[in-house]
Design a protein that fits this description.
Blueprint (H helix, E strand, L loop, with lengths): L4 E3 L2 E3 L1 E5 L3 H13 L3 E5 L5 H7 L4 E5 L7 H8 L7 E5 L4 H9 L4 E4 L4 H15 L6 E2 L4 E4 L4 E4 L2 E4 L2 H12 L5 E2 H8 L8 H18 L6 E4 L3 E4 L5
Helix pairs in contact: 1-5, 6-7, 6-8
Length: about 240
């Protein structure tokens, strides 16, 4: 029996499948149904944004290549108003495409051809990883992570993070000063033990630093440790 997942205050077990291959989309619907998820299919890129604004899906499967508006542009637009988990689907296996998708705010990517069972498992893994708690997580005396909103609050200011960025920052903030290797950070971000390049982790760290810099322009909060990894140290000069 599938769990219901709370997102933006709404209990939901609905998956939005954005895929122009109708047979493939219908196959995914069948597999999600076996796990007690409901699904809604959209085959045209132009129809996605308005539907999401009116509904509260638990997660979105978003194909890269779509009629009228591609998945990259849709992902950009979605991230302007929602942090719903997004899993990009692509037949392009080049690392730059995967990296770009994640940098846009996607939470995961799935390469074609794929097993429908794998897709369901990956969606469930992302939902477990991004399921919100009801109370803020105290990370340090000056920084607070709010898992109900995926926000970072620091010195009276706040900013929104993607689910991947939040999962990357969370262990470092929980143990200020501890050095985390890229592999350790990767394991926290992805539960399926996938192998991604150091470049992917570094790219996420770069974006995270840029966002946190908005909260504290005069202070470097995430520090590189040459040859090892990264650590969170808010009081280091």
């Amino acid at each position: 029996m599938s769990e219901s997942y709370e997102f933006e205050g709404v209990m939901s077990n609905q998956i939005l499948i954005v895929e122009d291959e109708v047979k493939l989309a219908n196959l995914l619907v069948d597999y999600f149904s076996l796990e007690q998820f409901t699904s809604h299919c959209i085959h045209d890129g132009n129809d996605v944004i308005e539907w999401v604004k009116k509904n509260n899906p638990a997660a979105i499967l978003l194909d890269l290549m779509l009629p009228n508006k591609d998945g990259m542009q849709i992902c950009r637009e979605l991230r302007q108003f929602t942090q719903v988990p997004i899993l990009m689907i692509t037949a392009k296996v080049e690392e730059i495409d995967r990296l770009l998708g994640l940098e846009l705010g996607a939470d995961d990517y799935i390469c074609k051809p794929f097993s429908p069972r794998e897709v369901v498992a990956r969606v469930k893994a992302v939902l477990r990883r991004t399921q919100f708690s009801q109370h803020p997580l105290k990370s340090s005396s000056t920084l607070e992570l709010d898992e109900s909103r995926y926000q970072v609050n620091y010195q009276g200011n706040s900013l929104d993070l993607t689910a991947v960025e939040f999962q990357l920052l969370k262990p470092m903030c929980a143990e200020p000063g501890r050095v985390f290797s890229r592999e350790q950070l990767m394991q926290n971000m992805y539960e399926d033990n996938r192998i991604v390049s150091d470049r992917t982790i570094d790219s996420h760290i770069k974006k995270l630093r840029k966002k946190i810099h908005q909260l504290s322009p005069s202070e470097e909060l995430i520090h590189s440790v040459y040859g090892v990894g990264y650590r969170f140290l808010p009081n280091e000069q």
